[in-house]
Design goal:
By secondary structure, the chain is mainly α. About 80% of the residues lie in helices and about 0% in strands. The protein has 19 helices and no strands. The longest helix has about 35 residues.
Length: about 450
């Protein structure tokens, strides 16, 4: 394990995930262009992102079962091929209905990549390096966000809609070729016993994974940490900064890289903390959620236009949320046998994307409702005004707050199971800190 072949597969798989993030986030820099190309309201535009996220979330559990049944290599290759077809469809779409079809294919293909890579990491590596590699996978993948924010945005501005999405599809084509040439599911044939031999056994493993409190804790951890940043980068962040705050499009695209950079810096740190303090992972998750909530509250409650430095703080907080969500997969890894990691990871990955497509749609709906109230009262239409965004973005507190309640419930059940099955007692954080402080005061 941890051989040169292991690292080669990690690098190639990470490139495939980088390509997937590029395809996923390519619409984020094209929100204004999509409105000009297809017309329509904010809620109609949000449908492009909503269907992509809805398909992604709905496909997670079936994809997880198929990973356990057929292996990660097949799913990575199939998912990448679907994204190629989806981006070509979007590039040539003459109207919104064909564009929606393209994003459905992108969402379906994207759904297979990340959890397949999590399975490959667990198959080819062992020890404390596993959660750290999961964080590095997320960091490398987020470079796809950089590609969409800078070079892809330049292509869109210079060459237009069709060349932009065709160029994105070409990156996925390269990823497909190298995956087919390099990636292998297992380091040896003896490990094939971890793959299920029938659909019945795969579905049975899914049932057991879903019932485990640790898997549910991973689901809600992903739900509360991943969603806000995804909503911002996938669709509504760019219009918010350009139309709501008056930033130049080039500055808004560059600002998205702050989010990526924060994730790349903080991801390895969170990976080390996750490996070093496995019984405090939920506290790390809750700390990340509290940081994002405080940053959003400051931005939305600022008396006038929030200052530039505060927007940077918000983007840093959202950037930390991305790697924070990967802790959910570490719960799935440690509370499930390896043969059912695909199913468990699929369940976890549903969490954040379920919250994301709900929030994407609700934000678009609230923007449209406010615009309708203004125009019916005789005021001029101002769909993307700062005040409209303040109201629309506040829906995040409701969606994420609900997730925190369920996370606390799942954590209590998980700790109860640890105490019952393994005799492990997890004291509250303040008790653990007090104990550590007392130990430090004792003379050697």
């Amino acid at each position: 394990m941890n051989s040169r072949r292991s690292w080669l597969i990690f690098y190639v798989g990470s490139f495939a995930y980088l390509s997937a993030v590029l395809q996923r986030s390519s619409l984020g820099i094209a929100g204004v262009a999509a409105t000009e190309r297809f017309g329509g309201s904010a809620s109609l535009l949000s449908s492009l992102a909503v269907v992509q996220l809805a398909v992604y979330a709905a496909a997670q559990v079936p994809v997880g079962v198929m990973i356990d049944r057929y292996g990660a290599r097949v799913l990575v290759a199939t998912g990448t091929a679907l994204m190629i077809v989806g981006q070509i469809t979007l590039a040539l779409a003459p109207d919104i209905s064909i564009a929606v079809l393209g994003r459905i294919l992108v969402g379906a293909g994207d759904a297979a990549i990340f959890i397949s890579m999590i399975r490959l990491i667990a198959s080819w590596f062992s020890g404390r390096i596993v959660p750290q590699l999961s964080q590095w996978l997320g960091n490398i993948g987020q470079l796809g966000q950089v590609l969409s924010a800078v070079p892809l945005a330049w292509v869109l501005h210079t060459w237009g809609w069709t060349p932009t999405f065709l160029s994105a599809a070409s990156v996925a084509a390269v990823a497909l070729v190298v995956v087919l040439v390099v990636v292998k599911d297992q380091p040896d044939r003896a490990s094939l016993e971890n793959r299920t031999t029938s659909w019945h056994s795969a579905l049975l493993q899914l049932k057991h994974s879903f019932k485990r409190p640790g898997t549910q804790l991973g689901f809600w951890s992903h739900y509360v940490t991943q969603s806000s940043g995804t909503v911002f980068t996938l669709l509504w962040g760019f219009p918010f900064m350009v139309s709501g705050l008056g930033y130049e499009p080039s500055l808004a695209a560059a600002m998205l890289m702050v989010l990526v950079g924060a994730g790349m810096v903080c991801g390895p740190i969170l990976g080390i903390l996750t490996a070093r303090f496995p019984l405090r992972r939920s506290n790390i998750v809750l700390s990340v959620v509290a940081l994002m909530g405080a940053a959003w509250a400051a931005v939305l409650l600022w008396p006038e236009q929030p200052p530039f430095w505060l927007m940077v703080v918000l983007l840093v907080a959202l950037g930390i949320g991305g790697p924070g969500s990967l802790i959910g997969f570490d719960f799935a890894r440690t509370f499930n046998p390896q043969r059912s990691h695909g199913s468990a990871n699929g369940v976890v990955n549903v969490g954040g994307f379920t919250a994301s497509f709900v929030m994407v749609y609700l934000i678009g709906l609230l923007l449209d409702l406010q615009d309708g109230w203004r125009t019916s009262g005789g005021e001029a239409s101002d769909l993307y005004s700062l005040d409209s965004f303040r109201v629309a973005f506040s829906v995040q507190f409701l969606v994420v707050g609900l997730g925190v309640i369920f996370l606390l419930h799942a954590r209590a059940r998980t700790r109860s199971q640890l105490s019952r099955d393994e005799g492990v007692e997890v004291a509250p954080l303040w008790v653990a800190v007090a104990r550590a402080w007392r130990r430090g005061q004792r003379p050697e």
